[in-house]
Specification:
- The complex is a heterodimer of chains A (83) and B (472).
- In chain A, 51% of the residues lie in helices and 0% in strands.
- Chain A contains four helices and no strands.
- Chain B contains 19 helices and 18 strands.
- The radius of gyration of chain B is 22 Å and the shape is globular.
- In chain B, helix 1 packs parallel to helix 9.
- The two termini of chain B are 41 Å apart.
- Helices cover 41% and strands 21% of the residues of chain B.
- The chains are: A mainly alpha (83), B alpha/beta (472).
- Chains A and B meet through helix 3 of A and helix 2 and helix 19 of B.
């Protein structure tokens, strides 16, 4: 997957997790938590969805890589190359 | 033909979930939705664990733990269960306190507590904000030696009345005391008190019915009246479980049973390393409870404005956590169930709860035990009479539950109704490091307790299990 495709995939997951949030103005460099009402359970959901949809395994100590859209895409790009 | 809970049981599952409380049900549902084959085995004839209800002659329905839970349940139910379940969650807006120090009504949220603390308790606004912020910012890894009692002393020195306002409901909600780590108070508090107290409209029976339906839809093989007797471990990994005398192979097991019961009874001491056993033996179980269920005659309604939804009532001059456990009861919580709980139903019911020590009840000879139960009922009615003067005339049915009742229905050691103290959380989380594929998602550590704690812990553990299954 390309960076743009990964970004779309994350948006798709976020849309399912936080259906009431408006994601159209999401700023990629700003942490999710500063723009969306996400709690630690929501981040766990992102991890679970990535595993379910793309069989991507993220170890607990690397959950912090998912703090913003740009850091998430950067982290996932090499891991989702073959998908 | 006799009922066979093991009919058509498969030989193999990806995961066996032991116990159908909210934590076990949620873990089972999440794992099945992730594509795993899941067996959910519950020893009782109905799902729900302590999220339960029962019916009695005369058409009475009693809820054991419905009032109330934090707002977070709405989101968790929507995400891990269904929109329909989430949409039935409503706020209880009239929470009352009545004790020798103060009598008041609150919506039980940060805003209203702030108002009360400033106006009634004459605390400067800045101190109130500082307290709420400190409680909100607490984390797992904070200093455990700092206690809830010290936290209150820091922000409201010498104010026993404020301690009572802020602590008494939490003590009833999860059995925690002033001597427990402040962080458990902070975490529960920020979840519980920031946006009020909620309940499920339709009653516990409706909630569990809807959850049961979701489990079917997700493809979970649900078995009630089905007790898991043993978890079999082979070369450090879960291999199978025995239920109803039958062995079923499985790659993973999630225990929603009592923490210590899981370690020492389901698995067995010999499978853990000595250090872990020591750590587990040091875990203190939380206290148990008593409840008195009072069903009113059909059409005999209690005026909502008279009693509110939840009433923390006490005649004790001061709040001390030890006093709440004593069989000489001076403090109790009344949950008022109006017809609005089950729209269309014409009954009112009141459930009085107290915290209790298992040993105070367990050691009684049978006759004394029955007399103590009767005494508990009389005492409760006397107390309720202060709020509903003619309660005895309106009453149609009354029954009491003791720590022994809780033990019988949940199989929890010591009839524990709130799992374990804080140290139980680390032991619960460390289980899979000791035995591959063995997880625990039961009530532990004060914070993973109550309806929301149970549901969320079920999800957290399901995530671990799913990751384990993907690797293996």
């Amino acid at each position: 997957m390309t960076a743009a495709e990964i970004r779309d995939a994350i948006l798709d997951i976020l849309h399912d997790i936080a259906p009431d949030e408006d994601l159209s103005n999401l700023k990629d460099e700003v942490p999710f938590r500063e723009q969306l009402e996400l709690d630690s359970m929501d981040f766990l959901d992102i991890v679970m969805e990535l595993r379910k949809r793309y069989r991507i395994q993220i170890p607990e100590e690397e959950y912090t890589e998912l703090s913003s859209m740009s850091s998430t895409v950067r982290y996932l790009e090499p891991r989702m190359k073959g998908i | 033909m006799p009922f066979d809970p093991l009919e058509n049981l498969r030989d193999h599952y990806d995961v066996v979930v032991i116990g159908g409380g909210l934590g076990g049900m949620t873990a089972a549902n999440a794992l099945a939705r992730a594509g795993r084959s899941v067996l959910l085995a519950e020893q009782h004839f109905k799902l729900g664990g302590l999220a339960t209800w029962f019916r009695r002659r005369g058409g009475h329905v009693f809820d054991v733990a419905l009032h109330g839970f934090p707002v977070g349940m709405i989101k968790s139910c929507r995400r891990y269960w269904s929109r329909e379940i989430a949409d039935s969650i409503v706020q209880l807006k009239d929470i009352r306190f009545d004790n020798p120090m103060f009598s008041l009504s609150t919506t039980f949220d940060r805003q209203d507590f702030t108002r009360l603390l400033i106006e009634r308790f004459q605390v400067p606004a800045a101190s109130v904000d500082a307290f709420f912020d400190a409680a909100r910012n607490m984390n797992f890894y904070d200093d455990q030696s700092f206690t809830a009692g010290q936290l209150f002393e820091k922000f409201f020195p010498g104010r026993a009345d404020i301690v009572r306002l802020l602590m008494e409901p939490i003590t009833y909600a999860n059995g925690s005391t002033l001597e427990d780590p402040a962080l458990t108070y902070g975490i529960v508090f920020s979840n519980f008190m920031s946006k009020g107290v909620y309940t499920f409209q339709g009653g516990t029976d409706q909630l569990i019915k809807l959850m049961g339906r979701e489990l079917q839809k997700s493809g979970v093989d649900v078995r009630t009246r089905c007790s898991v007797e043993k978890v079999h471990v082979d070369r450090g990994r879960v291999r199978a479980v025995t239920l109803g005398g039958k062995q079923v192979e499985t790659k993973a097991a999630v225990s929603n049973a009592n923490l210590l019961g899981t370690i020492f009874h389901l698995v067995g001491r010999e499978y853990w390393d000595c250090q872990f056993v020591e750590q587990a033996e040091a875990v203190r179980l939380n206290n148990s409870s008593t409840q008195v269920y009072m069903g009113l005659k059909p059409g005999m309604l209690i005026d909502e404005s008279q009693c509110g939804d939840l009433l923390f009532s006490s005649t004790a001059p001061e709040f001390r956590t030890g006093l709440l456990l004593s069989r000489n009861i001076t403090s109790r919580t009344f949950s008022f169930y109006y017809p609005k709980t089950r729209p269309g139903f014409d009954r009112c019911a009141v459930v009085a709860s107290t915290n209790a020590n298992y040993d105070d009840w367990n050691k009684l000879p049978k006759r004394e035990y029955e007399a103590a139960k009767q005494h508990l009922i009389e005492d409760t009615l006397n107390s309720l009479e202060r709020y509903v003067p003619d309660i005895r005339e309106r009453l149609d049915f009354v029954e009491a539950a003791t720590p022994l009742t809780f033990e019988r229905y949940t199989k929890h050691l010591g009839g524990s109704s709130f799992g374990t103290k804080f140290e139980g959380l680390a032991v619960s989380r460390a289980m899979p490091e000791q035995i591959g594929g063995l997880y625990h998602a039961g009530s532990v550590g004060i914070i993973m307790s109550g309806w929301l704690g149970a549901v969320n812990y079920g999800v957290i553990v399901a995530n671990d299990v799913d990751a384990y299954l993907m690797k293996s």
